[in-house]
Design a protein that fits this description.
Shape: elongated
Oligomer: single chain
CATH superfamily of the largest domain: Intergrase catalytic core
Radius of gyration: 32 Å
Distance between the termini: 119 Å
CATH class of the largest domain: Mainly Alpha
Order of helices and strands: HEEEEHHHHHHHHHHEEEHHHHHH
Number of domains: 3
Largest sheet: 4 strands, antiparallel
Strand order of the largest sheet: 1-2-3-4
CATH topology of the largest domain: hpI Integrase, Chain A
Number of strands: 7
Helix content: 40-55%
Length: 424
């Protein structure tokens, strides 16, 4: 007599087509593979690889990853690696956490890891502009370069020398660089910042001594000659105003340029200005101390002439609100203010800056105002106060800041009125 054989049900392994076709249901459900590996399909349609196993007298589940970031073949390979750990009495999740911990420790001791810590430690005392400058250039040349991944204890002076000289005399662009020529000023800053990172590594016990302590900037970089803007003459201001009237670029850039002429603040102080710093009803602009180049002298007060208020009202009429409240938001980066080069590029287009010109840059408005205001008979100390130059006598600086306000109000209006006489 022939007995019927029992029916053996064979389990089909998952395929990519089956996984892709899996749709969400009213409840999460599983698609099983082999070796207790399965795909969990959520009610939202998300798909997660899981592995069930038993260890230490309890049932456990290990989350392998999300599909399709982790594909079918990779999930099986990770399952096999996890099963080997389990056979050795190790929970896969504990192993993953330990690997992450060790990797973070290793990263923390790289030159870039120490640089990040140093920036976090020092940046509270920096201006937002300087903090962004340090972060931008260290990311570009250290994090994204060869130096960043090296253990800080293995970095030698020659590594830094190659970096500094490469930046100072480069002939090709890399990353987000604007020009394919050397940048000596950036190279000088990088040498200073790298030395500070090494000192921080010494203070935190990762390093015995600063390997570039004896490196002199003059041995690494040929400093570019300092170009001091000569002041504009009255006729040159007249020409500038005529060109501003005909300027074909963004109206906001023309307004920013004219505001620099009328207020002669530093370019960065204007570019990063926010509407909350202004009181048009009181005709005053208060620049917070944190944004000033000169530290330790408090907020800087800029009296607003009628002409400046008119420009600000015009700017407000077509400038929509932006998240940070900047007067001059960056047209390309929503989270930033106007670029540091925008006004100088406008001056180039007007023939005042660049090759073959008189070499006048945005910073030159300060020297222009200082020269002409002195010629107009205003007191030197009042002009210097309005320029926010540091008084070495801190007590006198505080006193003068308060005493000069009435004179500065009159001076700023007289200056704007004088500029009006040069129009067209």
């Amino acid at each position: 007599m022939i007995r019927d054989r029992p029916i053996v049900k064979t389990r089909k392994l998952l395929t990519d087509s089956v996984i892709r076709a899996a749709k969400p249901g009213p409840k999460p459900y599983k698609l099983s593979d082999s070796g207790r590996l399965y795909l969990l399909v959520s009610t939202a349609g998300k798909k997660y690889w899981k592995l069930n196993y038993r260890l230490d007298h309890r049932d456990c589940t290990y989350a392998i990853g999300e599909y399709p970031h982790v594909g079918l073949q990779e999930a099986r390979e990770l399952r096999d690696a996890a099963r080997k750990l389990i056979s050795d009495g190790v929970h896969p999740e504990d192993h993953k956490k330990e690997a992450i911990r060790l990797r973070r420790l290793a990263e923390a001791d790289t030159f870039w890891g120490v640089a990040e810590e140093w920036m976090a430690h020092k940046s509270p005392g920096w201006s937002p502009y300087y903090a962004k400058q340090v972060k931008t250039y260290l990311e570009r040349y250290v994090r994204d370069g060869e130096l960043g991944a090296l253990p800080v204890s293995k970095v030698v002076a020659l590594d830094v020398v190659r970096l500094i000289r490469g930046v100072a005399s480069r002939a090709t662009k890399s990353g987000a660089e604007r020009k394919s020529v050397g940048a000596p000023s950036i190279a000088i800053n990088l040498r200073q910042w790298c030395s500070s990172v090494f000192r921080y590594a010494v203070l935190t016990g990762r390093l015995g001594a600063n390997p570039i302590a004896d490196l002199q900037t003059k041995d690494l970089v040929i400093r570019p000659p300092v170009k001091n803007n000569r002041p504009l003459s009255s006729e040159e201001i007249r020409g500038l105003l005529a060109k501003l009237k005909e300027y074909k670029g963004a109206r906001s850039v023309a307004i920013a340029t004219e505001l620099l002429l009328l207020t002669f603040v530093r370019t960065g102080e204007l570019r990063a200005a926010t509407w909350g710093e202004f009181s048009l009803s009181d005709a005053v602009w208060t620049i917070p101390a944190a944004r000033m180049k000169v530290k330790g002298v408090g907020d800087h007060v800029v009296p607003l002439s009628l002409q400046v208020i008119a420009l600000l009202r015009e700017l407000a009429s077509f400038r929509g609100c932006n998240k940070a409240g900047w007067l001059f938001p960056n047209a390309r980066q929503a989270d930033s203010c106007m670029s540091a080069t925008t006004i100088n590029r406008a001056l180039e287009r007007m023939g005042l800056n660049g090759e073959g010109s008189i070499g006048f840059s945005a910073h030159g408005f300060r020297g222009t105002a200082s020269t002409l205001l002195n010629e107009m008979g205003f007191r030197y100390s009042v002009i210097e106060s309005q320029l926010a130059h540091r008084d070495r006598n801190q007590v006198a600086a505080t006193y003068n800041k308060a005493q000069y306000i009435p004179e500065r109000i009159r001076m700023m209006q007289k200056w704007a009125d004088y500029i009006d006489t040069l129009r067209f």
